[in-house]
Design brief:
- There is one protein chain.
- The protein contains 6 helices and 20 strands.
- It is of the alpha+beta class.
- The chain has 4 domains: about 90 residues, Beta Barrel (OB fold (Dihydrolipoamide Acetyltransferase, E2P)), CATH 2.40.50; about 80 residues, Nucleic acid-binding proteins (OB fold (Dihydrolipoamide Acetyltransferase, E2P), Beta Barrel); about 80 residues, OB fold (Dihydrolipoamide Acetyltransferase, E2P) (Beta Barrel); about 80 residues, OB fold (Dihydrolipoamide Acetyltransferase, E2P), CATH 2.40.50.
- β4 and β5 form a beta hairpin.
């Protein structure tokens, strides 16, 4: 007859087996935080021994106080970083679970084309680094409303759309500009219906480019071309206006089909071409400053905001090397040979002064 008596050792092993299970790396398990240690927390996940949750694995949000994330007797899901060995406890991660959940949430926001708030962390070459749900994303300069990362302040919250959310490549690309494009389409018709050509409006400079600037007019962006910023020649719009500046501009064109408005800053003042009608005439000898030198001649500033052309053929008889004769900023004496301010054209001569 077989011995049906179970030894104490066998009983203890069966009892132990009934309360434990095998855990593996990359498993997600439930556990209860039971004790706070110096560098982390002990967690009961039903294994032979309590697992350890290091402080560094609690939150994926930089500088987050771990005591705000976990508390004693909290029940949470944990990711197994290192499984249990004979003489070592299992190592857990809470932030890896949060990270996976965050990627899933961002994927849903992207699929639903929803806007989300992001916190600016830093300005880098080509754009901004921003944080959403503890994940770091990149906003290219081309996807910023202003196009100037340096204008964004660290810690600033901005509304963005998600262009790409790829957890496998750890790639999160965001757009601020698409938020404004969406908002513009919603209000453009109503705003444009209240605007008119020659109307003076106040707006904020929200983007500067080589060709001009964009000015926010009641929620839609109007284009202020560089040629409409100043009557005087300027090298770049930033010579006159700055990002964030509030300016008064005149509406010079409205395209209702494309929902675009064109603006002018220089027309807010007096047209200098109208001012010179009674100040100059053909045959006058005047002084001017060289603003620009080209292969065919030089542009001379003869009055604030008014440039006249001195052709190479009018400098002297015969062929001349204009670049060796003049420098930018030189003051020279010229004769007004042709004077048609109504057409914004004035022709000058140097050689005729001698005649």
């Amino acid at each position: 007859m077989a011995n049906e008596t179970m030894s104490n050792q066998e009983f203890e092993q069966l009892l132990l087996n009934s309360y434990t299970y095998k855990i593996n790396v990359a498993d997600v398990v439930k556990g209860v935080i039971v004790k706070k240690e110096k560098d982390g927390y002990l967690v009961d996940i039903g294994a032979k021994t309590e697992a350890f949750l290091p402080n560094r694995e609690i939150s994926n949000i930089p500088d987050k106080d771990v005591d705000e994330v976990v508390k004693l007797w909290d029940e949470k899901e944990f990711y197994i970083i290192k499984d249990e060995e004979e003489d070592e406890v299992a190592i857990l991660s809470l932030k890896k679970v949060s990270c996976a959940q965050a990627w899933q949430k961002l994927a849903e926001l992207k699929n639903n084309n929803e806007n989300v708030m992001a916190k600016v962390l830093s300005s880098v070459k080509g754009g901004l680094i921003a944080e959403i749900e503890g994940l770091r994303g990149f906003i290219p300069s081309s996807q910023l409303r202003t196009g100037a990362p340096s204008e964004m302040q660290v810690g600033q919250d901005i509304e963005v759309k998600i262009l790409e959310a790829d957890p496998k490549r750890n790639k999160l690309i965001l757009s601020q500009r698409q938020v404004y494009t969406q908002q513009r389409e919603m209000v453009a018709d109503e705003i444009i219906s209240r605007l008119a050509v020659d109307q003076v409006v106040e707006g904020e400079v929200v983007r500067i480019a080589d060709f001009g600037a964009f000015v926010d007019i009641e929620g839609i962006d109007g284009l202020l071309p560089i040629s409409e910023i100043s009557w005087e020649r300027i090298k770049h719009p930033s010579d006159v206006i700055q990002l964030g500046q509030k300016i008064e501009v005149k509406i010079i064109k409205i395209d209702e089909d494309l929902k675009r408005i064109s603006l002018s800053l220089k027309r807010m003042g007096t047209n200098p071409w109208e001012e010179i009608v009674d100040k100059f005439k053909e045959g006058d000898v005047i002084k001017g400053t060289i603003n620009k030198i080209t292969s065919f001649g030089a542009f001379i500033n003869i009055y604030p905001g008014v440039e006249a052309l001195l052709p190479s053929s009018e400098i002297a008889d015969g062929q001349v090397n204009i670049n060796s004769m003049f420098n930018l900023g030189d003051e020279i004496e010229v004769l007004i040979k042709k004077f048609t301010p109504q057409e914004h054209r004035i022709g000058l001569s140097m050689k005729d002064i001698q005649k």
